[in-house]
Structure formats: structure tokens, C-alpha cells
Design brief:
Layout (H helix, E strand, L loop, with lengths): L2 H17 L8 H19 L7 H18 L7 H11 L13 H8 L7 H11 L13
Helix pairs in contact: 2-3
Amino acid sequence: MGVSEIKQLTAHMRAIAAAVPLGAIASEANYSAAVDCLNQLLDAGGANESHPLAALVALLGERIAVWERAAYTLQEADNAEVLRFLLTQHGLTQADLPEVGSQGVVSEILSGKRRLNVRQIEVLAARFGTSPTVFLAVPSA
């Protein structure tokens, strides 16, 4: 590659960098801008691997994936934590769950002294409109 080609490449790179956020994503604002840009590139044909923008789409997609893995990791939660969260979100108390058992049973579940059984999981999943799997996390030690 000669000096002339490097100058031409530099000019093109400046133009691309001005339009596409190629640096590491360091904030939610950077992330939003990168996602918006990626969507525009995909709409312009960059999803096709033979399209001239495909390499740029791949690079930007990787930057976004790195940010998402770091920023949006899901925390493990045991079924007591999940149930507490759902009660709070729905403005309910232990007394509002008679289908699970007595208040004493619900209290034992919420304190981690008792695990939910299959029937209780099915009832709670139906009540809160969730998958039963949200109540199947391994309890924290």
C-alpha cells in the first residue's frame, strides 16, 4: 500500500468514523447511537454478506454485543427473590396468595426456609403471567 492509498483510506475512514460510532461503547447514549446506526446500515442492505456495508455491520454489531454482555447481564435469583419481586410489582402481600398456602407457608417461602413445589410454581406462573421457569432458579447458598 502506497502513500497515496493511505491518504485515500484515511479520508474514507474519517468520513466513516464521523457517521458510524466505531469506538468502544462507553455509555447508554453511545449504545443507543450505535444501535440506531446499525439499524440504518441493516436497512441499507448491510445484512447481506456480499453488500459493501457488511463488514461495517459486523464490526458495529460486535461493539454492541460487547456492551450488551457487560451492561445487561442477568443476575441469578432464587424463587423467593422472584416471588418478592412479583409481589412488589403487583402491589400484593403474602395474604394475597392463598392459592400458594397459608401466610405461614408463604412466609417460609419468602424467607428461603421452604422451596416452592410444582403445584405452587404452576399457580404462581398462571397468576403472574410468567413462564414457570422463572421460579426454578437454584437457591443462593
